[in-house]
Amino acid sequence: MAAISGEQAMTLLDFTQKPNIALLDEVVNCFYGTVGPQQQMAQRVLTQFKEHPESWSRVDAILEYSPNQQTKYFALQILENLIRTRWKALPREQCEGIKKYIVGLIIKLSGDPAQQMQEKVFLGKLNVILVQIVKKEWPHNWPTFISDIVGASKTSEPLCTNNMAVLKLLSEEVFDFSAGQMTQVKAKHLKDNMCNEFSQIFELCSFVMDNSQSITLVGATLETLLKFLNWIPLGYIFETKLVSTLIYRFLTVPAFRNVTLKCLTEIAGIQSNSQYSEQLLVMFSLVMIQLKQMLPLSTNIKEAYKNGQDDEQNFIQNLALFLCTFLKEHAAIIEQKPELQNNLLEALHFLVLISEVHEKEIFKICLEYWNYLSAELYRENPFSSSQSALLLGQSVLGQSVLGQMGQSVLGQAVPPRRQLYLPILPKVRVVMISRMAKPEEVLVVENEQGEAVREFMKDTDAINMYKSMRETLVYLTHLDYADTERIMTEKLYKQVDGSEWSWRNLNTLCWAIGSISGAFHEEDEKRFLVTVIKELLGMVEQKRGKDNKAIIASDIMYVVGQYPRFLRAHWKFLKTVVNKLFEFMHELHDGVQDMACDTFIKIAQKCRRHFVQVQPMEVMPFIEEILNNIRAIICDLQPHHVHTFYEAVGYMIQAQVDSVVQERLIEKYMSLPNEIWDSIIARATSDLQVLQDHDTIKQLGHILKTNVRACTAVGHPFVIQLGRIYLDMLNVYKVLSENISTAVALNGELVTKQPLIASMRTVKKETLKLISCWVSKSQDPGMVREHFLPPLLDAILGDYRRNVPGAREPEVLSTVTAIVERLESSATDDVPPILDSLFQCTLEMINKDLEEFPEHRINFFRMLHAIAANCFESLLRVPAPQFKLLMDAFVWGFKHTMRNVAEIGQDILLVLLQKFATHPSGTQFFQTYLLDLMQHVFSVLTDTSHAGSHTMYATILATMFSLVEDNKIGAPLYDPTTVQAANNAVYVQEYVAQLLKQAFPHLNIAQIKVFVEGLFSLNMDISQFKDHLRDFLVQIKEFSGDDPSDLYLEEREGQLRQAAEEKRRQQLTVPGIINPHDRPDDMQE
After folding, report:
1. Spatial separation of the C-alpha atoms in residues 554 and 547, rounded to whole Å
2. pTM for this structure?
3. Most buried in the list 227, 545, 612, 904, measured by CB within 10 Å?
4. Which helix (DSSP H) or strand (DSSP E) does residue 493 occupy?
């Protein structure tokens, strides 16, 4: 490829010369086929060409003369952009010219089947452009569009095939994707027109389906019809022969069966309407007759799917969708017809077979229906179809104690509807149990090599599926828990005897057993669980091999962790389980220690009181035993396991209600970390060099992390431990801060990444986390302020301000936030020194860009939000220049592109508006800042790169405009000596209109007027206000040119008038809400 000079390429941008298509092709090839400076030059030229206001005038020449497909696409992109944004700015004759050109080009390309296939992608893009034109022109400037396209379709089959694609695109644009792309009123007009003119399209579709022999055309027609079915008037579906044509003519034809089934699924999804119940039942019966011919009931669908082609696999998925959709919407009318109940059972049988297919997406479809059905049957009559096996004195391994299907249970007959589904429910239970997804708590998994390993990445899809399957199995268990128990027990014994032994089978069974916790009666649960745990513990002893033992151990831990009710009721079992977990804590197989610690903490949270009470046959509470042996229990655990262990024991200690005993327990509990802490502090007191030793620093970090987790669990009573180490901890903080500062001064900011300095920073971070954690749980704000706050602020504020930005801990900001939120208004006097030290230096770190220091950024704005919400008075004490800086920071907050920061910024702004609205100094604040804030909010709202919540912006603007409208601002927002305005509302209307006119000169005055009026008349209804804003955001994307007659403006004005009148009527019903001088009633003399 010959190199092109930049100067040569730039001649393309001279629109006074004839277009050089050959040169454009070369530049496009250069962009797609080279790298480096040549490609960058080509990109620059193409971007400038595309953005040139005259570039669209070259499109016809490019499409006509360029042989290069990529150049043609480039031209179509230019044209599409013109239509989307500047169509209304074009003179009418140019619009008509473009329209005729595109239509002519489509007819030319689609008239010949061979050319249509060859130019398929290019033609598809032309179709998209035509639909964009139709959205702008029809029906106002192109009233005959539907009759034109239908008429043209009758002239040739290839053209008809392409026109079906155009109609399909139009349907999608109007009915599926109109939200956010066009105003609501315009979308409604297009939808109404589509419905009104649909008869011509329907006749065309029917004619094709009845008469055409072209597979391509019929396929395109069915695909297009599929898009119509969710919005066309129901008469076209049920009062014509459409349904019978679909079933008899196309359902059994391999080429059409998938799209036909999709069409029938759309029809099945129509909300049940008694007017068309019979037609729906006939449709279901006809489909079932055809289905049984295509797929006999004896078919092994699991194998058929496994061995099938793509088309056959898609058919099974579409069949699942059809059956699930129909049964969910219309099963109630089938249930009432005895002659159709056999069809219902056959459909359910198909669904059970499809549920066994090993394809996740298909299983999800079936699962959603089984979940719906089981929930319906349960809610209708929430009692089990089986009595407790204990009450009946029957063996667990016996058949379901239901016996005869209609028998009464505890004096209640089985509900007729449930009786209808009884034959199928045991099969669904088997599917759920044998396919149960992996719960989040299970960490030991089988990898692709067949080894038992620890899972590090969470599979969110599996977790969501587990939640849905668990819910379904719980409902199914409530419907007949004896049957669930029978299936599970049989499967368990097959694991024990080895006939069905595999990791997969054992896992799914144990996950299923764990998932139904609480669904059995307590006595049944006890009997069942004793069997399960006994057999699983037996398997641990019986099986050889570390991997086998790890899998069984993980299953035992999962099951026991799921049954706290059982553990609470059976102390000896609870103690045995916890001791077994302590054994597993010494097991070094991947993932076993993690699960042992995770299960221990779950049990500790759910059974905490049982560990601090003296249980029968015991001489002391079990917590004492744990604390006596703590060194031996945790000796093989990794540091992060030890932290989890300490949190778990902390929950037990938190449950001790006797404060004297609790204090003694806390001292004993923390004695091990305190020993090491005291030893380090003693050495550091005599030699500060100790705090330069890396191993010592890592030990300090480990001890503080243990304290953080312990404090998380124990809560306020942890003050006894915190008080013990508090001042030493702050002294360590200061020394490490000096060490870090010295290192940075000597070696530059990069030294903060070195391991020793990073460990020092970890100690500082954990110190702050511990204080934040305790403060947020403290029940004595006075103690916090009097004893803990002064030394803390002394240690952290000056250090933060003095440090280089890279060595400042973001946790300082989050600790201050926790203190302000806990102390609330009593922290008001402490806020000024806090802001003095933290505000300016943090703002300088984050105001250079929108990305650097993300943790400082979010913690900074959280701190400001806490101060504004809890210590509002402290902001009023800030001198005016500093307050201006604060306001700039608040604005900077909601202007962020980081969503979480932008949302905090929005919250701060709303809090300020609400606080100042009721405060005496509000008038001065609003006079100074309201219009400025309004301008900033509009600039962010209309900038697509910003990420805040649209609802929150609507709430903020609605608050601003209602403050103005309700005259809550006690002084004019303008200078009365230079501005003539009746009141603030009139002035703000003019101000906002002018602001928008300057920002969006392409909008006409009528559009702006309607928008501004809506800001006032809709500000009481956030939902309508938000829609009003959204419509405006759609409008600013389009140039309206000189066309003031936007078809929908009048309607919008009418709606706004009605909204304003309705609001006025509501206000008139509330005495005193409207100024007496404005009331049109008999208060006037």
Report:
1. 11
2. 0.79
3. 904
4. helix 481-496
